[in-house]
Amino acid sequence: MAMQTVDYIWMNGKTVRWKDAKVHILTHALHYGTGVFEGIRCYATDKGPAVFRLKDHMDRLAGSAKAIGMQMPYSAGDLCKATRALIRKNRFKEGYVRPIVYYGYGKMGLDPRGAPVDVAIAIWPWGKYLGEDSVARGVKCKISSFRRIDSRTVPTSAKVCGYYINSMISHNEAANAGCDEAILLNTTGNVAEGPGENIFVVKKGVLITPPLTAGILPGITRRSIIQIAKDNGIKVMEKNMKPADLYKADETFFTGTAAEVTPISMIDGKRIGIGRRGPITEKLQGIFYRVVKGKEKKYAKWLDFA
């Protein structure tokens, strides 16, 4: 499916036409993966377009840049302001927001110091990442033969462009096997996450998710679901899990900006729970969608209106 476009992209403090948002072939990040990015969603609400946890995302972007020794030329606050302005300029209602900070053109070689640091923000319409019917039906997954990158190798809490080759090959392996998505284990054999999602399990009414020490990305949707669950009397545990814990779960689901809250119906050909969205997943999913649409006053602070 062709990518939907909008009129403008923000680049280094200026708005440029979509078709003119270009970089040089010798851009450092193109060759070495030396960039950091975020995935953010904007939702249509009764009060206009609202970005979900915008500041939290931009703060994580700044943290990712710091983790790889990159000095951002704009503050997180500057990028929040630019995002809101870009949404207004495009008369954008709902979709995806992609800020990226990267070493640009001007230097080659593994040492990026001295290369310019470029910053861009793009927005575009993007529906359900794992398919519209995945919200209730759930998705089929395969545990990947590739392991999640190890925190002793790179700072896994950072969202770095180059890391996503790990995600791409694991996702494609699953897709080639007829599945919707992959699940990665870490190098110790414990459950880590999906290629672009965190993972949760429900067992006997308890919500369980791998700890940050499993080498996972500290997901903002993950953090939100943990808070929503606790606020609604659902016990939450962060602990290491093996594949068998997934197979035996009553419910399992992904969380993420793109995936939002997506049930997992099958793993490695084994049906999970009832084989579709379970009751706790449905409850958390329902609250989450009300939150992002501005229907839950308790979580109004999570929305940043453009």
Question: What does this protein look like?
Answer:
With 306 residues, this protein is of the alpha+beta class. The chain folds into two domains: 117 residues, 2-Layer Sandwich (D-amino Acid Aminotransferase, Chain A, domain 1); 159 residues, D-amino Acid Aminotransferase, subunit A, domain 2 (D-amino Acid Aminotransferase, Chain A, domain 2, Alpha-Beta Barrel), CATH 3.20.10.10. Strands 8, 9, 10, 11, 12, 13, 14, 15 and 16 form a nine-stranded mixed β-sheet that branches. Strands 1, 2, 3, 4, 5, 6, 7 and 17 form an eight-stranded antiparallel β-sheet that branches. It is globular. The two termini are 28 Å apart. The relative contact order is 0.16. The mean pLDDT is 96.
Assembly form of the protein: single chain
Main beta sheet: 9 strands, mixed
Average residue-wise pLDDT? 96
Strand tally? 17
Strand content: 25-35%
- What structural class should be given to the helix and strand makeup? alpha+beta
Question: Can you tell me the overall shape?
Answer: globular
CATH topology of the largest domain, anyone?
D-amino Acid Aminotransferase, Chain A, domain 2
Structurally, how many domains make up the residues? 2
CATH architecture heading of the largest domain: Alpha-Beta Barrel
Radius of gyration: 19 Å
Distance between the termini: 28 Å
H/I helix tally: 8
Low-confidence stretches: none
Report helical residue fraction.
Answer: 25-40%
